[in-house]
Design a protein that fits this description.
The protein is mainly alpha-helical and about 350 residues long. About 60% of the residues lie in helices and about 10% in strands. It has 14 helices and 5 strands. Strands 1-4-5 form a 3-stranded mixed sheet, sandwiched between helices. It has a two-stranded antiparallel sheet with strand order 2-3. Strand 2 (about 35-40) and strand 3 form a beta hairpin. The radius of gyration is 33 Å and the shape is elongated.
C-alpha cells in the first residue's frame, strides 16, 4: 500500500498517525475473513500479509476489500492511497518474491498514478532471474560491516558470489553490480570511521575480471577492517584503563566503589569490570586496595600525621578498620611500622 500525500497533506508526524489509522481501517475490513500481519518497509509502504480464515463462511476478494478501503480513505482524508495485491503464495518460502513483485509493480505499472488498485499476475513477467537477491536481502552487506560482524560479512560475500556462479555465471554486468555495491559499502565504513579512501586498496572496477578476484579483493578488505577495529578497540580499552587508574590515584580518599568509578567514565559497572580485568589481569578493587596500602606506607613515614589522618587520606573513615586492614597486608600495625612505643 502506497500513501500518496498532497502538498498540503499531513506532515511527517501526522503521517505516522495516518499510517496507524489506515492500518486499523484495513485490519477491520479484513478481520471477518482473513488473519493479517502488518508492517512498513524501508520505502514507507504499508504491508499486509493475509491468510484466509478456515472458519470464514464467505471470503470477500481482496480487490473488493481494497476498493472499499480506497472509498473510505477518499471520504476521510486529504491524501490518496494505491494498493498492490500480490498473487497468493506459499508462506514463508515465496513471501520475499511476492513482496519484490509488488515493489516492481509500483515502479513499472503504477508510476505517478494515484488512487489505484493493481493486481499482480501469478508469475513475474520475466521468468529469467535478473536480480541479485543475495546482494539486496537483509541484512545488507553494509549493515554487517557497520556492526563489525566480520564473519557474517564474509558469509554474505560467499552467498552473493555463490548466487552469481549459479545464475549469472559469465555476466560481467552483474559482476560490476556486485563490485559497485560492495565498494559503496566500504566507502561508507571508511568515512564513518573518519578514515580516507586513499589509505585503502579500493581497486578500480576495471581490474576486477572474475568473481574469484572480486571475492578475494573484498575478503582482504574485510580482514583489514577487522584488524583495524581490533586495534582501535585495544587502544580504546588501554585508554579507558589509564583514565580509570588516573581517577583512582587522584581520589584515594574518596568512595571508590565500582559503581562510582563506572559513573565517572560513563560505563556500566559490569562491562567496566570485565574490560579492566581483561586488560590488567587484576580486579579493580585489588588495584584500589594495593594503591591505598602503598600510599598509607608512604604517609606513615611522615610522623606529623596521626594514624587516623593517614587512614582518612587513603579512604578509610574508620581508623580501627584501617589498622586491621593494614596489619593483614603488612603483618604489622601502623604503629609497629613506625616503631611507636605502645600506649599504656
Amino acid at each position: 500500500m502506497r500513501i500518496e500525500r498532497e502538498e498540503d497533506g499531513p506532515d511527517r508526524t501526522d503521517a505516522k498517525l495516518m499510517a496507524f489509522a489506515l492500518t486499523n481501517i484495513m485490519e477491520e475490513l479484513l478481520e471477518d475473513a482473513y488473519d493479517s500481519w502488518t508492517g512498513e518497509d524501508m520505502y514507507g509502504h504499508l504491508m499486509f500479509v493475509v491468510k484466509r480464515k478456515v472458519q470464514a463462511t464467505a471470503t470477500q476478494p481482496l480487490d473488493r476489500i481494497s476498493d472499499q478501503f480506497l472509498r473510505i480513505v477518499r471520504h476521510l482524508y486529504r491524501f490518496t492511497v494505491s494498493v498492490i495485491i500480490s498473487p497468493e503464495v506459499a508462506f514463508p518460502t515465496r513471501l520475499q518474491q511476492a513482496y519484490q513483485q509488488c515493489v516492481a509493480s509500483i515502479r513499472q505499472f503504477l508510476g505517478d498514478e494515484r488512487d489505484t488498485i493493481i493486481t499482480v499476475g501469478a508469475e513475474p513477467r520475466n521468468s529469467v532471474p535478473s536480480e541479485l537477491s543475495a546482494l539486496y536481502s537483509l541484512p545488507l552487506f553494509v549493515h554487517l560491516l557497520e556492526a563489525g560482524q566480520w564473519d557474517a560479512a564474509l558469509a554474505k560475500l560467499e552467498d552473493i558470489a555463490g548466487e552469481w556462479r549459479r545464475q549469472f555465471n559469465g555476466s560481467y554486468e552483474h559482476l560490476m553490480e556486485i563490485y559497485h555495491s560492495l565498494s559503496a559499502s566500504f566507502f561508507f565504513l571508511i568515512h564513518k570511521n573518519g578514515k580516507r579512501i586513499i589509505d585503502y586498496r579500493l581497486a578500480s572496477g576495471s581490474l576486477i575480471q572474475t568473481i574469484d578476484e572480486l571475492q578475494q579483493w573484498a575478503s582482504e578488505l574485510i580482514s583489514e577492517f577487522r584488524s583495524e577495529m581490533q586495534d582501535d578497540l585495544s587502544r580504546h580499552r588501554k585508554s579507558l584503563v589509564a583514565q580509570v587508574q588516573q581517577y583512582i590515584q587522584s581520589h584515594l580518599s574518596a568512595d571508590l566503589c565500582l559503581q562510582t568509578i563506572a559513573d565517572r567514565v560513563h560505563l556500566h559497572p559490569v562491562y567496566l569490570s570485565k574490560v579492566y580485568k581483561k586488560e590488567t589481569g587484576e580486579n579493580m578493587t585489588e588495584y584500589v586496595y594495593q594503591l591505598r596500602m602503598d600510599k598509607a606506607l608512604s604517609l606513615l613515614n611522615n610522623r606529623e600525621l596521626k594514624v587516623y589522618e593517614v587512614a582518612e587520606q587513603v579512604g578509610y573513615n574508620n581508623p580501627a578498620y584501617f589498622i586491621r586492614v593494614f596489619k593483614n597486608h603488612f603483618n604489622v600495625t601502623p604503629q609497629e611500622y613506625r616503631g611507636d612505643p605502645p600506649k599504656g
